[in-house]
C-alpha cells in the first residue's frame, strides 16, 4: 500500500543540550566557535528514534475530496496500479466501473464474488477503494489469504470505502486478516452491516471480533454457519450484552444447543434492549432452550421485535414456556415457529395466550404438522385478536373443515392482511371460499 504504513510523526532535533549551559559548557562553546572560524566544520545527527523515515498522508475530511476523479480516470489508475504490482486487471472490475453510476463519489456495488484475490491483486485495488465509496462490497469466496486480507481490509477501513461488506466464504484470512477485520469493525464510521458466513469463528477470531464489537457502529451482523456453539458464542454474547448499536443479529446454522448456548442467548435478551432482530433458524434450541429464551424475552421492554426460530426441534412441550411468556410481551412483532413439530397440541397450548397478546403481528407456522383441528384453534385466536396482520399456514394438512373455520374467522377479524395457505385442491374449492383480505 502506498501510504497506509507511513504513520510516524515528523520530528526534529532537540536543542535542549544548548539550554542552561554551565560555565565549562560556555568555554567549550567558545572553543567550538574558534574552530569554526578557522574553517573547521562539524555535522551532527539526531538519535535514531528521531530520524524522519516517512510521513503520513492526511485523510481528507471533505467527502467530495476523493470523488474528483471520473470513473474513466479511476479505471486508468487501476490499470496502472495493476501494472505496478504485476497483475492482470480484473475484467469484471473494469466492467463494473465502466457501467457504474457515480453520484458524489458513491457507487452502488463492487461485486467481486468468486474472483480470486491474491495479495498483489488486493494492493492494486487501492486506487478504487480510495476514490469511490460503495454501498456494498461483495468479497464472498474470493480466496483471500492472510496478507491480502489484511491489506484489503486495512484499505477499506482507512478510506471508509463501504457501508455493507460481505466477506463470507473466506476461511484462510489468518491472524493478520482477523486483526484487520477487528480494526475495521471497531474504527469504521461508515460500515453498518457485515456478513461473515460460512467461516469458522473459533476462539481466537471470536475474541478479536468480540472486543471490536464493544465499541463498533455496526447495526447488522450476519454470522450464519460460523461454528459459534460453545466458547465462541459465550465470548460474543459477553461483548453484545453492553453493545448499544447492533439492531440485527443472524446466527442461523450454528448448531446452537439447548443448554449452554440457549442460556447465553437468554442472558443476551435479559441485558440487551437495543437488539431488534434475532435469527436462530436451523439450530437445536429445542424445548429446554426455548425456556431460556422465554425467560430473557420477559425482560424485553423496548428491544426485540423479530424472533426467528424456524427448524429448531421445538415441540408442543416447548409451547408451554411460550404460553407463559406471550401475554407479557410488549414489543415482539414477528415470531417464526415454522418447521417445528408443534402439531395440533402445540397450537392448543398457545391459543389462549395468542388471544391476549398485544404485540405479535406476524406469526409463521409453516410445516408445523397442523391439521384441521389446529386450524380451528387458530380461527378462534383470529376472532379474539385484533393485532395480527399476517398468518402463514403453508405446508400443513389443512383441509375443508379447517378452511371453513378460518373463513368464518376472517369475517370477524379486521386486522389480518395476509393469510398464507397452500393451493386448495379443485374438489375442495367447490365447497369453501375464503373472503378477500
Structure description:
It holds the Pfam family LRR_6. Belongs to the PPP1R37 family. InterPro entries: Leu-rich_rpt, LRR_dom_sf, PP1-Reg/Actin-Interact_Protein. The chain has helices spanning 23-37, 71-84, 91-99, 119-124, 126-131, 146-159, 174-187, 203-213, 231-240, 260-271, 286-297, 316-325, 343-356, 372-384, 400-412, 426-429, and strands at residues 106-111, 133-138, 162-166, 193-195, 220-222, 248-250, 277-279, 306-308, 334-336, 362-364, 390-392, 418-420. The chain has 437 residues and is of the alpha/beta class. The radius of gyration is 31 Å and the shape is elongated. Residues 5-23, 32-41 and 52-66 have low confidence and may be disordered.
Mean pLDDT across all amino acids: 86
Structural class label: alpha/beta
The 3D shape can be described as elongated
State the share of residues found in helices, binned by percent: 40-55%
Strand content: 5-15%
Strand order of the largest sheet: 1-2-3-4-5-6-7-8-9-10-11-12
Report on the biggest sheet: 12 strands, parallel
Number of helices: 16
Measured between the Cα atoms of the first and last residue, the distance is 59 Å
The topology string of helices and strands comes to HHHEHHEHEHEHEHEHEHEHEHEHEHEH
Radius of gyration: 31 Å
Q: Segments where pLDDT lies below 50 for 5+ residues?
A: 5-23, 32-41, 52-66
Count of distinct strands: 12
Structural key phrases:
437 residues; alpha/beta; twelve-stranded parallel beta sheet; 41% helix; elongated
Amino acid at each position: 500500500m502506498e501510504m497506509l504504513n507511513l504513520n510516524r510523526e515528523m520530528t526534529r532535533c532537540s536543542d535542549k543540550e544548548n539550554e542552561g549551559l554551565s560555565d565549562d559548557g560556555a568555554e567549550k562553546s567558545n572553543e567550538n566557535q574558534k574552530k569554526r572560524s578557522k574553517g573547521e566544520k562539524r555535522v551532527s545527527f539526531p538519535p535514531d528514534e528521531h530520524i524522519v523515515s516517512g510521513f503520513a498522508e492526511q485523510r481528507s475530511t471533505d467527502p467530495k475530496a476523493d470523488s474528483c476523479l471520473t470513473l474513466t480516470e479511476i479505471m486508468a489508475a487501476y490499470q496502472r496500479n495493476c501494472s505496478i504490482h504485476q497483475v492482470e486487471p480484473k475484467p469484471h472490475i473494469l466492467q463494473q466501473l465502466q457501467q457504474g453510476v457515480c453520484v458524489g463519489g458513491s457507487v452502488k456495488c463492487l461485486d467481486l464474488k468468486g474472483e480470486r484475490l491474491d495479495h498483489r491483486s488486493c494492493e492494486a485495488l487501492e486506487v478504487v477503494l480510495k476514490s469511490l465509496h460503495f454501498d456494498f462490497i461483495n468479497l464472498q469466496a474470493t480466496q483471500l489469504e492472510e496478507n491480502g486480507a489484511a491489506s484489503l481490509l486495512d484499505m477499506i477501513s482507512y478510506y471508509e470505502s463501504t457501508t455493507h461488506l460481505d466477506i463470507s466464504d473466506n476461511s484462510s484470512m489468518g491472524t493478520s486478516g482477523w486483526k484487520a477485520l477487528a480494526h475495521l469493525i471497531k474504527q469504521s464510521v461508515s460500515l453498518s452491516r457485515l456478513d461473515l458466513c460460512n467461516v469458522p469463528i473459533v476462539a481466537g477470531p471470536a475474541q478479536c471480533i468480540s472486543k471490536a464489537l464493544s465499541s463498533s457502529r455496526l447495526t447488522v451482523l450476519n454470522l450464519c454457519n460460523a461454528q459459534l456453539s460453545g466458547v465462541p458464542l459465550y465470548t460474543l454474547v459477553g461483548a453484545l450484552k453492553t453493545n448499544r448499536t447492533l439492531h440485527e443479529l443472524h446466527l442461523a446454522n450454528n448448531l446452537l444447543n439447548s443448554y449452554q448456548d440457549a442460556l447465553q442467548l437468554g442472558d443476551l435478551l435479559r441485558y440487551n434492549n437495543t437488539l431488534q432482530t434475532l435469527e436462530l433458524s436451523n439450530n437445536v434450541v429445542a424445548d429446554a432452550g426455548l425456556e431460556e429464551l422465554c425467560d430473557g424475552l420477559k425482560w424485553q421492554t423496548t428491544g426485540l421485535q423479530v424472533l426467528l426460530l424456524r427448524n429448531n426441534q421445538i415441540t408442543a412441550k416447548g409451547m408451554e414456556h411460550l404460553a407463559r411468556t406471550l401475554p407479557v410481551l410488549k414489543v415482539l412483532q414477528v415470531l417464526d415457529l415454522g418447521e417445528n413439530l408443534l402439531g395440533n397440541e402445540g397450537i392448543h397450548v398457545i391459543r389462549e395466550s395468542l388471544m391476549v397478546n398485544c404485540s405479535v403481528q406476524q406469526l409463521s407456522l409453516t410445516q408445523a404438522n397442523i391439521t384441521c383441528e389446529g386450524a380451528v384453534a387458530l380461527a378462534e385466536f383470529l376472532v379474539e385478536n385484533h393485532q395480527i396482520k399476517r398468518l402463514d399456514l403453508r405446508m400443513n394438512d389443512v383441509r375443508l373443515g379447517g378452511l371453513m373455520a378460518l373463513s368464518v374467522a376472517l369475517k370477524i377479524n379486521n386486522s389480518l392482511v395476509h393469510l398464507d395457505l397452500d393451493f386448495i385442491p379443485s374438489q375442495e374449492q367447490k365447497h369453501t371460499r375464503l373472503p378477500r383480505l
